[in-house]
Amino acid sequence: MGRTYFVEEAVGQYLSDLSTKLKPYVTGLLIGQCSLQRDYVIRAVRTPPKEEQKEDNISPSKLASIDDEWITTHASQVSRMLPGGLLVLGVFIIATPELSKDSQNALRKLIFSVEKSLTKRRLWKPAEEEVSDRAALQMCSATKKVVCRTYDVQDPKSSAKPADWKYQSALSASWLALDCTVNVNIHIPLLATSPNHDLEKNTKNGLNRWSKQIEDSVFLINGHVKDDDTELLEGQKKLRGNTQSSTQFSDVKVLTQLSQGSSHRSTATVQVCSGSINLKGAVKCRAYVHNNKPKVKEAIQALKRDIINTLSDRCEILFEDLIINEGPHKKNFEREYHVLPQRLFVPVAGSSVMLSDYKFGDEATGEIQERFVEMLDQSVEAEDIHVAEEINTVDICPVTDNMDDTQQKQLTKATLLLKLQQNMGVVIAAAVAVFASIFSFNYFSD
Questions:
Q1: Is the pTM of this model over 0.85?
Q2: Cβ neighbour number for residue 373 with a 10 Å cutoff
Q3: pLDDT tens digit string along 339-376?
Q4: What is the SS3 assignment for 349?
Q5: How far apart are CA 187 and CA 112, in angstroms?
Q6: Side-chain half-sphere CA neighbours of 368 within 13 A
Q7: Do the strands 161-162 and 146-152 form a parallel or antiparallel pair, or are they unpaired?
Q8: Kind plus residue range of the DSSP H or E element containing 375
Q9: CA-to-CA distance for 96 and 142, rounded, in angstroms?
C-alpha cells in the first residue's frame, strides 16, 4: 500500500494558479512533515527564475533544460528557513501535455539530487524507522490532473510507487509547537597541523561533536520528563476546533550532560593548537508537530534537529557573508569577533506554523521581504516579521601573536581562497539571515 499525503487546500490553489501563469513547465518544492502513519504537505514553492530568465522574460521549452544545481541550491536555501519538524519532502512539476510523458524521469532525477544536497549539509543522522519516501508530484497544466508517486531515497535503484494526494482544509491550523532557548558555549581548537586553517571545516567538525551532546541531552517538556512513546498532549487540555489558526506551545528545557557516565571510557589527548574558535550565545529554537496524536519521541526529535540545524545554518551564512563582503585579501589574522545572524519568524496565512529566517544586524527589513518572495514566493508585511533574539554587544579585543606578518597573510589567503572556490556559483542571488549569538575567532601564539 502506498503512502497518503494530506495536503493543505491552499497548496492546490497555488499549483492551479502556477499552471495558468507559467508554461510550458514549472518546477518547485513540496514542504511539510513526515510521520510513520501519514504525511502532511503544507506548502508548495516554485523554483525562482534565474536572472537571465527575468531579464529576457523567457522560459525553457524542454525538460532537458531543467537545471538540477539551481533547484538543489534553492532547496538548500529553503531548508534553512524551515523550523524543526518541517522539511523538503518532495518536488513537483507542472507541464503541458506534450511534456508530461517525460516529467516522471525528470522528477525522479530531481528527487535524488535534492535529497543528496540536503543530506550533505546535515549534522544529524536519520533514525532507523524514519520515513525515507519522498513525493514526486506531476500536474498537467491543461487538465489539472495530479499524479503523485514516491521514491525511497535510501535506495538509488528505487522505482516509483503510487501515492494518494488528498486535500484538507485548515490542515495545520492547530499544530503543536515546542519552544526552547539553548545557551551555547562551544570551544573548538584549531590544530597546528590542520591544513590551511580551514575555519569552516574546523567549525563543522566542532559542531558535529556538539550535536552528539544535543542528541544525548534530556528534554523537559513543561517541566517534566516524558516517556518517548506517550502522547505529547497526555495530561494536557487539547485546543478544540481547527477552523481558525491557533498554536498550543510547550516550553522545553534542555539538560546537557556535563560528563559521560561510568560505562564510558574517556581518554585525554594532548594536541598542539595554533588557535581556537568560540561560539557563545543564546539560541532560540522551535519545532512543530502535527496534531494527530503525536508521540513525545516525534516532538523531541524535531526540536533536537532544529537546535542542531539553526546553529549550523548560521555558521554557514556567516562564512558566506565573510567571503562576499571581505574577500580573499584580508590584511591580518588577529583576534576577531563576528555576530551570527539573528533568528526571526514569519506567520503563514491559515496556519499555526511560522517559517524562519536569519538576519544580520545591518540588514534592512526590505531585504528580508525580498528574500521571502524569492525563496518561498510569499509576500511578508514588515509588522509580521518577529525577531526572536536580542543582539549581543561585542567588544573587539586585540590579541598578542608571535606569528610574523608574512605567515599571517599566507594563512589568510589560503583559507579565504579555498572557501571562495567552494562557494563560487553556489550562493543564490538572495542574502541569508537572523540571530544573536557571538561568534569569535581567537588566534593566539603557542
A1: no
A2: 13
A3: 889 999 999 988 999 999 999 888 999 999 999 999 99
A4: coil
A5: 36
A6: 28
A7: antiparallel
A8: helix 365-376
A9: 6
